[in-house]
Design goal:
By secondary structure, this protein is mainly alpha-helical. The chain has a domain of 143 residues: Tetratricopeptide repeat domain (Serine Threonine Protein Phosphatase 5, Tetratricopeptide repeat), CATH 1.25.40. 70% of the residues lie in helices and 0% in strands. The longest helix has 14 residues. The radius of gyration is 20 Å and the shape is globular.
């Protein structure tokens, strides 16, 4: 439980002050929720997790903060802790569909499909609808190798036109080694948000997985144009450059002469 203590709602977990930011006394829970959303959209899940935690330190009644914290733990592949914190959130909000879905996704990633199915069913039975609940349903279908995953992911996108939805669907498709499907989803995200560095980065990952090296390089380059010194894109560019000059490729070029 490496992150358990990091998520305790106390002053020790406060993110450091940033330049050109509002006075600390004016930074309410809503401010930190907005910061969490900005970080999430940039793929900075560790920072988003801290900001959600800071918001909850100021206002424990923010169900969206609890759900966001759980979802960031899932993105960081901290599945047992995601299950723990979704359970803690459900103690406060026992009928919250987002927290039920988060717990279902945690169980799915840990291989407990019985609990995953039960919790996902419960989340969809709660009042209202949300893209995230259908996104989790789609993941459970994908993990169970059922054909309904596409329908569920499409449903999520119908419910919420935010480009973050197809991006996070693409990440799920990548997790289950379906890069061609992921590429279609991330292209949809880029149609909506062509200036998102993280979306270009995810597209580059999809293309790289499919062996589309030139296209991947272009996507990572576009990411770097929008976000100079993007660590992930820089690392992928170095990897692709190393592959381009691998001993096998050099030999192939020599034989072609």
């Amino acid at each position: 439980m490496a992150r358990f203590h990091k998520l305790e709602l106390n002053a020790r977990n406060r993110p450091p002050p940033e330049p050109n930011e509002p006075d600390p006394l004016s930074r309410d829970a809503g401010y930190w929720m907005n910061k969490a959303d900005e970080s999430r959209r940039a793929g900075l899940y560790e920072s988003a997790l801290k900001y959600y935690s800071r918001a909850l330190e100021l206002d424990r009644s923010l169900a969206a903060g609890w759900a966001g914290q759980v979802q960031m733990l899932l993105q960081l592949e901290e599945y047992p802790e995601a299950e723990l914190w979704s359970r803690k959130g459900l103690e406060l909000f026992p009928t919250n569909g987002e927290l039920m879905a988060g717990r279902a996704q945690a169980f799915c990633r840990m291989g407990d499909m019985k609990q995953a199915h039960a919790l996902c069913d419960g989340s969809l039975q709660q009042a209202g609808q949300s893209a995230y609940r259908w996104l989790v349903r789609g993941e459970i279908m994908a993990a169970s190798r059922q054909d309904m995953d596409r329908y569920c992911f499409d449903k999520a996108q119908e419910l919420d036109a935010d480009w973050l939805v197809p991006l996070e669907v693409a990440r799920i498709e990548l997790y289950y080694r379906k890069p061609s499907r992921a590429l279609g989803r991330i292209r949809r995200a880029l149609e909506i948000a062509p200036e998102s560095p993280f979306a270009w980065y995810v597209q580059g990952i999809c293309q790289s997985e499919l062996g589309l090296t030139r296209a991947a390089r272009q996507s990572f380059q576009r990411c770097l144009e929008l976000s100079p010194r993007h660590a992930g894109a820089e690392e992928q560019m170095r990897r692709l450059q190393g592959w381009s000059w691998s001993p096998m490729k050099i030999l192939r070029r020599l034989f072609r002469r």
